[in-house]
Every structure is written in structure tokens, then in C-alpha cells.
Specification:
Helices cover 52% and strands 15% of the residues. The chain is α+β, with helices and mostly antiparallel strands.
């Protein structure tokens, strides 16, 4: 729950001359809200608005997508053994760990997480100084072995992320924000990356829209996230949501 900011006021003081004795006295002119408090109240209002927007839109989208949930679930079950949904720990706001929900897009394989962990560490550290294109090819090669045919379509259309609307309703995520990373990826962060955890993770975000493809430069994706953290406001969120519609329809953003 968002906490209501502490109400505090201070008195503006104005010097007023007392003509009879020629001295100055301090006369309080009544309570006014301090500039600092005004900013705090405005920020609180924006956060409340963002949370309300998240809940309303997520609820509407979920209801509208129920038939789609059923069709996707059937397609997953008919094409590969395993559960319909994929749940995995992710790191959210201020380091809180939660379980993210997605439609399963990969074959069930116990070694998949370890392989992804190794890939992520190589992407972040990049000690060999490999160009982005080579790193992207490694990622595509990794996916080719894991992703099902239905899963590939779900990833290209972002439909695999529809169940994350539940995470939005539960308050773990927002509609807009940086993408949530697994704990092992956060552990591999450089120190300055951690500032991206100062806001809730989102279904879509500034980094996702600007990079379009799997990040060729990991630090570049982090810089986009930090720009969002520093410049966040409701109008920016609305802009990102509107930009996301043609972005998803283009189906050029995922492998």
C-alpha cells in the first residue's frame, strides 16, 4: 500500500515595520505548504494514479484475454509435454523477490536455467570484448535449442507475457517499468545497475521499446532503465503504453 505523505506546514515570515518605534518585527502570514512538501505530495499523487491505472488496465486486459488464455493453453499442451505456465523467481522493487508468471515457451529441461545463467554472466561481463552481434548470435543459438514452435510465436507476439497481468494486479509489477531479472542475474550486476530496482518492474518499458531486439549491449539497456527511473511520470508511462501497441504488432522485437 502507498503511504500518505506526512502533512507538515511552515509559516511564511515577513518583516513588517512598526512605524512608532522604527523597528522590524517578524509577523507570521499564515500556513503555506513548503515547496519540498508540494513535490512530495505531487509524487505521492502520481504513484497512487499509477497504481490505480495498473489495476484498472490489468483487470480489463485479463477479462478481455480469457478466451486467448484458453487457446494458448491448449496449443502449449498439444505441442509439448509440461505445464502451461512457467514461474520463476524475479527481483522486483527494492530487491523484493517474487514469482513471475509466463506461458511456457521452452521444452522442460532442468539444465536450461544453468545455461541461461552462464549466458547472462558472459553478457554482463563480456571479458572477451565480443561485439554485440556475436553475443546476440549466442543468445539465438541458445533459444533455438530450447524454444518450442508455439513458444517462438508467443515470444514474437509477446503473448507469453500475458499472465504477468496477474503480477500487476498483485502489486509485484507495474504495466510500465524495467524488465525484472532473475536473482542470479542481479547478483552479477555491476554496482551502478542496482538503481534500476528503485521502481517496480514492468510488462513494457523504455529500454524494451528503444532496443527493439535482444540487447546487443547490456549496459545500454541498463542506461535506458536508469533514464526511466530518473524521468518517470504518468505522462511518460502513457506514452510508453501507446508506443507499445505498434511495437507488439510489428512482431520484430523478439526471437
Amino acid at each position: 500500500m502507498l503511504k500518505k505523505p506526512f502533512k507538515a506546514f511552515h509559516s511564511a515570515i515577513e518583516s513588517e515595520m512598526v512605524a512608532s518605534i522604527g523597528e522590524y518585527v517578524l509577523v507570521p502570514q499564515g500556513p503555506v505548504v513548503s515547496p519540498v512538501l508540494s513535490e512530495a505530495v505531487a509524487l505521492w499523487i502520481q504513484k497512487v494514479t499509477k497504481r490505480c491505472m495498473d489495476m484498472v488496465f490489468a483487470f480489463i486486459f485479463l477479462l478481455s484475454a480469457l478466451p486467448l488464455f484458453l487457446l494458448i493453453g491448449i496449443a502449449i499442451k498439444l505441442t509439448s509435454p509440461g505445464p502451461i505456465f512457467f514461474r520463476q523467481p524475479r527481483v522486483g522493487y527494492k530487491g523484493k523477490v517474487f514469482k513471475i508468471w509466463k506461458f511456457r515457451t521452452m521444452y522442460v529441461d532442468q539444465s536450461a536455467e544453468e545455461e541461461h545463467k552462464a549466458y547472462v554472466e558472459s553478457l554482463i561481463q563480456n571479458e572477451e570484448g565480443l561485439p554485440g552481434e556475436v553475443l546476440a548470435e549466442k543468445f539465438v543459438e541458445y533459444l533455438d535449442k530450447r524454444v518450442t514452435k508455439v513458444g517462438r510465436f508467443l515470444r514474437m507476439s509477446s503473448l507469453d507475457e500475458l499472465p504477468q497481468l496477474l503480477n500487476v494486479l498483485w502489486g509485484d509489477m507495474s504495466l510500465v517499468g524495467p524488465r525484472p531479472h532473475p536473482p542470479y542475474e542481479v547478483q552479477a550486476y555491476k554496482k551502478w545497475y542496482a538503481r534500476r530496482l528503485q521502481v517496480k518492474p514492468g510488462l513494457t518499458g523504455w529500454s524494451k521499446l528503444n532496443l527493439r531486439l535482444t540487447p546487443l549491449n547490456y549496459e545500454e539497456s541498463i542506461l535506458y532503465d536508469l533514464w526511466y527511473v530518473d524521468n518517470w511520470n504518468i505522462l511518460l508511462d502513457l506514452r510508453i503504453l501507446i508506443m507499445t501497441i505498434p511495437f507488439i504488432l510489428s512482431m520484430k522485437h523478439a526471437t
